[in-house]
Amino acid sequence: MNKTVRDYIRTIVDFPREGVMFRDVTTLFADPRGFRMAVDQMLHPYAGKRIDKVAGLEARGFILGGAVAHQLGTGFVPIRKKGKLPGTVISEDYALEYGEAVIELHDDAIAPGETVLLVDDLLATGGTARAGIRLIERLGGDIVGCAFIVDLPDLGGRAALHAMGMDVHTLCAFEGD
Question: What architecture (CATH level 2) is domain 49-173?
Answer without folding.
Answer: 3-Layer(aba) Sandwich (3.40)
